[in-house]
Amino acid sequence: MKKFNWGTGLAIVIVLFLVISIGRVVLIHVLVDYDLVEEEYYDAEIKYQEQINKIKRTEALPEQLQINLTGNTIEFKFPSLFNPELVNGNILFYKPSDDLLDKKLEIKLNEENKTYIDTKELSAGLWKIKVEWAVNDVTYYNEESMMVP
Asked: Are 13 and 53 in the same domain?
């Protein structure tokens, strides 16, 4: 039977340390959920100047988009200076706590320049509402946070 000497003990300690360290890294990588605000964040950063221009155009309008929560309905009232047939774009409901719940809807206005969204389609909590819309190829952008009951 071989004797257990200090060299063997040191080798065992080093191997155990490496196994535990690698195991922890793998375990943490598997268990941690990495939710990015933007999947393609680099491309989004490059296009940010375009976004700033849209916001400035929107702020320069004499009448602003109004977003109101009443009961179980979110009302979007677009500026009346635009023909409702010419307004197009998307409404993105962004859930910061869970990107799997995000919803993107096409803007469809009635004759009063309004559209309605039922909150039953949304889970309770904080939502960021991002509205990107255009009239005659001129783009506008609004963003608002809202608590949905």
From this structure: no
Note the pLDDT tens digit of each residue in 24-66: 999 888 887 666 566 677 777 777 888 899 999 999 999 999 9
- Which two three-digit tokens encode residue 112? 């009063």
Neighbours of 148 (CB within 10 A): 18
Total domains, the chain: 2
pTM assigned to the model: 0.68
Average pLDDT of the chain?
Answer: 90
Domain that holds residue 88: 41-148
| Cα distances (angstroms) measured from residue 103 to each of 29, 71, 119, 129 | 28, 20, 12, 10
Burial class (CB in 10 A: 0-12, 13-18, 19+), 146: middle
